[in-house]
Specification:
215 residues; alpha/beta; five-stranded parallel sheet; globular; binds thymidine-5'-diphosphate
Amino acid sequence: MTDTPRGLLITLEGGEGAGKTTAQTFIHDWLVAEGRSVTTTREPGGTQLAEGIRDMLLDKRGDMAPPTELLLMFAARAENIAKIIEPALAKGHDVLCDRFTDASRAYQGAGRQLGLSSVDALAEWVHPTLRPDLTLLLDVPVAVGMERVGKRGAALNRFEMADVEFFERVRQGYLDQATREPDRFVVIDATQSIDTVQSKIKDALLELVVRRPHG
Ligand code: TYD
């Protein structure tokens, strides 16, 4: 009897207004067209409990100490990993996760200035062996992202209400992480046209599935 090969974990990252939602649909459809099974999830969220934690985290009326915020992100992540990500990978599905631990590095580590060591310590505890096979970072200048979010017209959540300096630190946090792990990250300039962004995403996916058909 042969074991089912594990699926690949692909994470999607970026600041506010980077276009993750459009990218996620594109990636999902591309993988399915390749004949692969795909499970999509998001963070914070994914399960009923983790979505409840998400509501607390995003509630704009909530005032939250940065360590609480970091711990809640990891509480939600532990649920998502145990109930969705690991079971899906084990049955051979690729998992497409809208944000993962790199978001905690960027938003809490850099943005909230908690530092990388606290995030890395939690990552080591919560998912010591789980690491994305590919992380697509959609990068946009903060002003561009904020303008896009403003145009959506939807009510802003607690993160979207933060100041420009916060988002500058988040952006730099992501770019620093990409520099630290160039084998895992593909940084895409998300100010380009949707067609260009999607063709770069496709190149990254092709390379991944050719190089490592399974996780
Ligand atoms: P997201 O669902 O990506 O919202 P949007 O599509 O509006 O960008 O993420 C919700 C927010 O949670 C987002 O502002 C980033 C934040 N976040 C963190 O601060 N740390 C984390 O670890 C994660 C996963 C998200």
